[in-house]
Design goal:
disordered N terminus, 15 helices, globular, alpha+beta, Phosphoglucomutase, 8-stranded mixed sheet
């Protein structure tokens, strides 16, 4: 713990635990979280949680409850001064509806921000938030499940999260290596054998980010938490962190008993996926028999899909690659949007003469596919394919996507498939929440999907589940085979026949220098909005350009046979620019229109755009 000694006994804010009556809760807004040092025993600090420090007498995890006795670590003696914890700006850890930070040192210019004490405070804050939201009126102890992807910091952070939760008086169910969708599922599954449903779930992941990063995602049975919830939790965590008493060791007597369970929940989750494919094929035991399907997990958490889903369904999976979890990601970034990753799965399909290739991101909430010819089924193509499948099942339904989808996709959904395309904002949570909102006002929507590979279906509780998306593709293969229609993955590629795709597409990133004097002390967000407003005014005066009649994010404009979208990043001081056109020449014409408007903003780094338009 970077030389710092921290112990882990909490009394949660607004929550006092009474050992004689586990269900007696009391909210007191002014009561701080308190953290108390444990007594010295034999010159060592008594420790009642898991630590990354060297320990002895630590009982092994078992299935079922485990009362964890006193554990000792070789810490400081009573005469050793304990350094204070570093100050932390917790709100900087917010990444939309997730928490992200640097968990491992060693990368220059990237100091560790998601330390064990910080993580522990965040976990305790989530526990308090959960107790408050659920009112703690049930005659039971609350349970929170914890899972993680393959990152090298996963175990360390799982231990810290466990300490924070148990210290707040809640029980922990550890799943170990898991997927993000499985964690949400654990709040819905009914089954005492697996201690389900849990009251809340935490996934430790940073998606496709580099090995030194990590983060947290939170779920209840209502779905993933939103931005306001994350901000609330981080503010609570900051208060908890301030109360950590690390000035020195005291002789205060305190004993705690923690309840931690370890469960193989992934077997439950994968069994449900298998059952879904069998149902689609008329309850055939091995509906994928004869299919050769390869999986690329990128050394993330998705390696289970080959052996636990495809093989029980009868598929041949030889040639699957990078299934072993390795948090250094030695082969390629686990990211269906990454060109190197897609090239790897394409090559695996071609080398093995497979019918289909499937690729996942690190925590399996995103996915993409490749057909037998090496044709990518990702981004607009994946959205078109999923739209075709969903609109067969729900004719006329609305498909909600993010803002950077193509005009050709709109034509495909509305003219060929007979659906409605509702292009919304970037951010998977934005897209999902918009689909839920549309349903609430009477507009039927069954699919919310981003070009990034995040896709959620109404039938699957609006969970963005990369594995479930691939199951929908497998359902088509299986049902076609059961109906006597062969053709392998051609069944899928035929569904996107007629999708118009641009001859040229590019994304450029225009960065805002937050230290530039032109900001005049304002925020990068204000500056970015000023850029967008100026561009909008320029477009209004140009007869060759036309603003999109309905648009929810940035400035989207048609012209030269294509379109561009300039928008402000959700989290960073960046204005991403997407351009699609029939040719590079046409794309440059659109780029020049943006360049003419942005040149008046000296704090905006337009070098990428300048290089693009000048290179033609």
């Amino acid at each position: 713990m970077s030389g710092k000694v921290v112990q882990n006994v909490f009394v949660a804010q607004g929550y006092q635990q009474n050992r004689q009556s586990e269900t007696q809760y009391r909210r007191d807004c002014s009561a701080p979280y308190m953290r108390k040092l444990l007594p010295l025993q034999g010159g060592k600090l008594a420790w009642t949680g898991i630590s990354s420090m060297q320990m002895r007498n630590l009982p092994k995890y078992q299935s079922g409850f485990v009362n964890r006795g006193t554990v000792y670590c070789n810490a400081a003696s009573s005469t050793t001064a304990v350094p204070a914890l570093d100050k932390v700006d917790f709100l900087k850890l917010q990444n939309g509806s997730d928490i992200r930070g640097v968990a491992i040192g060693g990368v220059e210019g990237e100091p560790v921000s998601l330390t064990e004490p910080v993580t522990e405070a965040i976990a305790a804050a989530f526990a308090a938030w959960l107790l408050e939201k659920k009112k703690a009126d049930a005659p039971k102890r609350f349970k929170i499940s914890i899972g993680h992807d393959s990152r090298v910091s996963a175990q360390m952070l799982q231990d810290a999260v466990s300490r924070g939760i148990t210290g707040a008086g809640l029980d922990v169910v550890q799943y170990g290596l898991a997927s993000t969708p499985a964690m949400f599922n654990s709040t819905l599954t009914e089954g005492d054998a697996f201690f389900c449903p849990v009251d809340g779930a935490i996934m430790i992941t940073a998606s496709h980010l580099p090995y030194n990063r990590n983060g947290l995602k939170f779920f209840t049975n209502a779905g993933g938490l939103g931005k306001p919830d994350i901000k609330d939790i981080l503010e609570r965590a900051a208060d908890i962190y301030k109360q950590f008493m690390v000035e020195g060791l005291t002789n205060l007597e305190k004993q705690t008993s923690t309840s931690i369970k370890r469960v193989d929940y992934m077997s439950v989750y994968t069994s449900d996926l298998v059952k879904a494919v069998r149902r689609a094929a008329g309850d055939i035991e091995k509906p994928l028999e004869g299919f050769h399907i390869v999986v690329d997990a990128g050394n993330g958490a998705g390696g289970f899909f080959a052996a636990k889903v495809l093989e029980p369904l009868g598929a041949k999976t030889s040639g699957s690659q990078f299934l072993e979890p390795d948090g250094m990601f030695p082969n390629h970034i686990p990211n269906p949007e990454d060109k190197t990753a897609m090239k790897a799965i394409i090559q695996a399909v071609l080398d093995n003469k497979a019918d289909l290739g499937i690729i996942f991101d690190t925590d399996v909430d995103r996915s993409a596919a490749v057909d037998s010819t090496g044709h990518e089924l990702n981004r607009n193509r994946l959205i078109a394919l999923m739209s075709a499948i969903v609109l067969e099942e729900h004719p006329g339904t609305t498909i909600v996507t993010d803002s950077v989808t193509s005009d050709g996709l709109t034509t495909f959904i509305e003219k060929k498939l007979g659906g409605k395309h509702h292009r919304f904002k970037r951010g998977y949570k934005n897209v999902i929440d918009e689909a839920i909102r549309l349903n609430s006002i009477g507009e039927e929507s069954h699919l919310a999907i981003e070009t990034s590979g995040h896709g959620a279906l109404k039938e699957n509780h609006w969970l963005d589940d990369g594995a479930y998306l691939m199951v929908k593709l497998l359902n088509k293969l299986a049902s076609a085979r059961a109906a006597g229609r062969g053709g392998g993955s051609k069944v899928l590629t035929d569904l996107v026949d007629g999708l118009e795709e641009p001859g040229f597409a590019v994304e450029l990133r225009l960065k805002i220098d937050q230290n530039h004097s032109d900001l005049k002390g304002g925020s990068f967000r204000d500056y970015g909005e000023a850029v967008l407003k100026h561009l909008e005014n320029r477009v209004d005066s140009d007869p060759k350009l036309q603003k999109a009649p309905v648009n929810y994010e940035g400035v989207r404009v048609s012209g030269s046979g294509g379109w561009f979208l300039l928008r402000l990043s959700l989290h960073d001081p960046v204005l991403p620019l997407n351009i699609e056109a029939p040719s590079r020449e046409d794309a440059v014409k659109l780029g020049l229109a943006v360049a003419a408007a942005t040149k008046e903003f000296p704090a905006l780094d337009t070098s990428a755009l300048d290089k693009f338009v000048q290179a033609f």
